[in-house]
Amino acid sequence: MATLGIGIAGLGTVGSGVIGLLRRNADLIEAGCGRKIGIAGVSARDRSRDRGIELGDCRWFDDARSLADDPEIDVVVELIGGEDGVALDLARRSIAAGKHFVTANKALLAIHGTELATAADHAGIHVGYEAAVAGGIPVIKTLREGLAANRVRRVHGILNGTSNYILTAMREHGAAFEDVLGEAQRLGYAELDPTLDIGGGDAAHKLAILAALAFRRPVDFAGVHVEGIRGVTPMDIAFAREFGYRIKLLAIAQAGTGGVEQRVHPTMVPEDGAIAHIDGVFNAVVIEGDAAPVTTLIGAGAGAGPTATAVVADLADIARGVRHAMFAVPGPELVHRPTVAIDQRQGEYYVRLMVIDQPGVMADVSAILRDEQISLGSLLQRGRDPGETVPVVMTTHEAEEASMRRACERIAALDTVTEPPVTIRIERV
Ligand code: HSE
């Protein structure tokens, strides 16, 4: 069979990793696909940069968009990034030209995924995006193929390695967020501009894609409630431990009668659960179905080798002539299901107050909780310092988020409460 010609746009860590992997394991890949995968063209901003790979025999394209027009290229592999600009132009142009399209670009798919899925169905081509979610973890294949016969109830997991690395280091060393972030940047584990990672945006992009695939609905990135990890303190991590929890940046999509919840936020998870023990840069995804109750995938969510593995898995599908609808069903068959607002979340909460240590403070706090029908699970005051500020920590039984928010606003207004309350959602995962 003829060689599958691929054109690679973007030669950063992942692009170079894909070329390296295709060369290193060429025999294995050819045996599995029944044909060779050959690099028919590459494009990047800087031709002269040393990438640690030999590009001598690759055709060079100054404008990545022109990969879409080249007759020797069957598949365009977009590894540029960004939700718009060249990446979006290249996606639209490749699909319109009838070329298969493979991407690691979660931002692009979180914003334009539904449009691209519909265009791909119309053109009869395959859009592969295994590398866009959780790097080397084959979660797209698992959801779309392995669990195709299941009604998915919930998908949750740790989808951002940088945040997980920082939270792990804070827990292990009792260190402050800013100190750990600085160290992670020095070591190259965090970007110099870490906003997308620590702000939760990267995990939210991935979650929006997973929710579309799991629930066969149009991608709704705007409907993801996002909170990052910047506000997590060593004090809350220490209290979490006392209550038997760890704090993780959890991404959760779950279907209920009112629609689909999509949220990314720091979460207290039971210390004895599997998710609590996913540490460092690792990612994990847990899928709950009606027939297969729990499927847990753990692996490397980033890095050249794992991400290139996912890109080549998509290329292998295309080489074998496999074509899947992007979100399991054709674009026009994706069924709109409303996104449930965060205010409607029902769950338990951890609340930390900084209060003046004097009689009657907790009576006022309890009265507010009673008014909002919030029931206390446990209460802890560490230290005794009459007249000074001390932390008081509570966990609640299941309550509605809107009630919790109103209660915290009223508690914050008490004279004896010196800082806005810190609330962290608890999930029994
Ligand atoms: N920056 C991401 C992370 C990997 O820290 O997990 C790529 O999405």
* Run of helices and strands: EHHEEHEHEHEHHHHEHEEEEHEHEEEHE
Tell me the fraction of residues in β-strands, as a range.
15-25%
Q: Provide the residue-averaged pLDDT.
A: 96
Helix content: 25-40%
User: How far do the termini sit from each other?
Assistant: 48 Å
Largest sheet: 11 strands, mixed
DSSP, total strands:
16
Oligomer: single chain
Q: What small molecules accompany the polymer chains?
A: L-homoserine
Low-pLDDT windows of residues: none
Secondary structure class reads alpha/beta
Estimated radius of gyration: 24 Å
Shape annotation: elongated
In short:
The chain has helices at residues 13-24, 26-33, 85-96, 106-123, 139-146, 161-173, 177-187, 195-198, 201-215, 234-243, 304-319, 361-371, 401-412; strands at 4-9, 37-43, 75-78, 100-103, 127-128, 152-158, 225-226, 245-256, 259-270, 282-289, 295-300, 346-356, 376-381, 389-396, 399-400, 422-426.
Describe this structure in words.
By secondary structure, the protein is of the alpha/beta class. It is built from 13 helices and 16 strands. The protein has helices spanning 13-24, 26-33, 85-96, 106-123, 139-146, 161-173, 177-187, 195-198, 201-215, 234-243, 304-319, 361-371, 401-412, and strands at residues 4-9, 37-43, 75-78, 100-103, 127-128, 152-158, 225-226, 245-256, 259-270, 282-289, 295-300, 346-356, 376-381, 389-396, 399-400, 422-426. Strands 6, 7, 8, 9, 10, 11, 12, 13, 14, 15 and 16 form an eleven-stranded mixed beta sheet that branches. Helix 4 links the parallel strand 4 (100-103) and strand 5. The longest helix has 18 residues, at 106-123. The protein is elongated. It starts with a strand and ends with a strand. The mean pLDDT is 96. L-homoserine (HSE) binds at residues 160-162, 197, 202, 301-302. L-homoserine is lined by residues 160-162, 197, 202, 301-302.
